[in-house]
């Protein structure tokens, strides 16, 4: 059995990615009114720097002989199980910032869903892919 969790540095990069849409939308909200802009900025920063890191740190997963199992959640734990025979493709990519943190984004494609694992450490991704490919 292979167990994996999201790396803290990878989670920080994901939180940085989440700040970008808020920074792009903020001028348009401030244009409407300063009060709305301040409320939006406070909400977005709280979401990206408070809730999202805690949510990402609650993620854990494992791969056994027959299935990939993942669970995450703060208040309500959500579990997903995918049989390994249904995994049809896997993709792994990393940005320069993720490479600096020794992390990657792993995408597992199945017949009915797409599993995206952002902020996974390179070692965990290597062992997970090796296990799924039968090595």
UniProtKB/TrEMBL annotation:
<keyword id="KW-0812">Transmembrane</keyword>
<keyword id="KW-0472">Membrane</keyword>
<feature type="domain" description="YdbS-like PH">
    <location>
        <begin position="64"/>
        <end position="132"/>
    </location>
</feature>
<keyword id="KW-0732">Signal</keyword>
<dbReference type="Pfam" id="PF03703">
    <property type="entry name" value="bPH_2"/>
</dbReference>
<dbReference type="InterPro" id="IPR005182">
    <property type="entry name" value="YdbS-like_PH"/>
</dbReference>
<feature type="transmembrane region" description="Helical">
    <location>
        <begin position="35"/>
        <end position="52"/>
    </location>
</feature>
<protein>
    <submittedName>
        <fullName>PH domain-containing protein</fullName>
    </submittedName>
</protein>
<keyword id="KW-1133">Transmembrane helix</keyword>
<feature type="signal peptide">
    <location>
        <begin position="1"/>
        <end position="25"/>
    </location>
</feature>
